[in-house]
Every structure is written in structure tokens, then in C-alpha cells.
Amino acid sequence: MSVLTLRLDGPLQAWGASARFARRTTESAPTKSGVIGMLAAAQGMDRGNDAQLARLAALRFGVRIDQPGTRLRDYQTAQHQITQASMPVSERYYLADAVFVAAVEGDDDLVDQLDAALRAPVHAPFLGRRSCPPARPVQLGVRRGADLVRALRDEPWQAAAWYRRGHRRQSTVQLTVLREAHPGEPGADLVRDQPLSFAAEQRRHALRSVVTETVEVPHPDVQAATTATARVPEHDPLAALEESI
């Protein structure tokens, strides 16, 4: 088994698990449906290919909140291009300045295929909506022989430098992880973002069990400063005099 880790970082993100009429909300963290959709698009998968989707949906999924970001509301108006009639007013919600580490666990061959697809995607990745491109390359790497929990714990903190400076007094940081629960695992919540079909005429999702926990991750800036201080060479200004006596 292998784990593919992803950095989801952009000016805006939108991970909607539900939408009613003209109001489109966003969850506080990436959904499994959204991330699997991004991987499927990178492979060039047809929306109606439910068999191929089932293979991707079987991957175990988890996400770590490295930088929670801020929720913002966009108030939109539109006009029909031909009739000039006013379209319904819509509200769209986004996460601004958020950074996440997502991970999928599965067979080595499938994980390698997804990693290769992200490096040369058929369709460009986006963070929940097409209007939300990533700020940096999405793929972080493949971890061999690691499980989902270990990969999300061991991946270095990906938050922006300005955000990390607000935690510079801490040598480690506590980050929230949302991961798929094992069968029968207690304390799990149910969320409806397990993709069954991306067909345009009828998208379908099922419930899955999610466990919320925290992991402790080293602060890279504090560690670097400590290492630099430790490497300062010792200097004794009287050493040369002592040697001459």
C-alpha cells in the first residue's frame, strides 16, 4: 500500500457538500468527492464512467487542516445574454487563504498512476470550483509502506510563512485531521461526500464515516532556528595564549 499526499493551497477554495438553489456553500475542509473529482479530471476520466470512479472512490481519504483560512461570501448578479432578463441572485461562499494536506491510500499501481496524472494532467486541477486554481503544484509525493494516519502526521507543515510566524513561540503545532474511520470505529460522524457518480444528469453521493483527531507536527521555522544556533562554533579568545605557555 502507498499514500499520495497533496497540498491544496490557493487564494480561494470551495468544497461544497450540498447546494440549494442559488446558495452554494463550502465546507471548512476539502471533501472526498471534490478531491476524487480532481484526481479523476487529472486522469481524463469521463464523467459517466462509474466503474473507473468506483476504483478511485475506494481509496481511503483523509485531510489535515494546516491553515484554516477565512470564509467569505460572494454576492452575484447576472443577466441572460439573449433576453437580457435578470437571472436569480446567487450567493457563493469560499475559503480564502486556506492550506490543506490531503492524502489518499491505496494500491501501489493506482497511487503511482494518480501521481503521474497530477504531474501531467489531462484537465487542470482546481480547488473545488473551476474559479479556484491552486497556487502551487498539488502533488507532494508518494509514501511507500505508510498508512493514511502516518502520512498525515509526518508530512511537514505546509502553512504560509506569514501564518507560521504567528506560532513561532511553539516548537510543535496541533493540527486537526479528518480521516475515514475503520469499520466499527467509535466516535465517527457521517458525511455525504462518498462519490457514486459524477454523471452530469444525476450526481450521486453516499454516506461515509469520518473521525476527527489531532496530530502534532514540528514547526519548521523554530527547528531551523534552533539548529542554526546549535551550530555556532565555540570560541575561546584565550586559547592561543594558553597554547603558547
Task: Summarize the structure in words.
The mean pLDDT is 88. The chain has helices spanning 32-43, 50-57, 108-119, 148-154, 161-165, 220-230, 239-244; strands at 2-13, 19-20, 23-24, 60-67, 70-76, 90-106, 139-144, 172-180, 189-197, 204-218. Strand 9 (189-197) and strand 10 form a beta hairpin. The chain has one domain (2-244): Alpha-Beta Plaits. The chain is globular and about 90 Å long. It is 25% helix and 36% strand. It has seven helices and ten strands. The chain is α+β, with helices and mostly antiparallel strands. Strands 1, 2, 3, 4, 5, 6, 7, 8, 9 and 10 form a ten-stranded mixed β-sheet that branches.
Low-confidence stretches: none
What is the oligomeric state here? single chain
Reported CATH architecture:
2-Layer Sandwich
* Number of E strands: 10
Helices and strands: which structural class? alpha+beta
Count of domains = 1
Strand portion: 35-45%
Q: Measure the end-to-end span.
A: 66 Å
Overall pLDDT score: 88
Give the biggest beta sheet: 10 strands, mixed
Order of helices and strands: EEEHHEEEHEHHEEEHH
State Rg: 23 Å
CATH class: Alpha Beta
Described by the principal axes of the CA atoms, the overall outline is globular
CATH topology: the name is: Alpha-Beta Plaits
Number of helical regions: 7
Fraction of helical residues? 10-25%
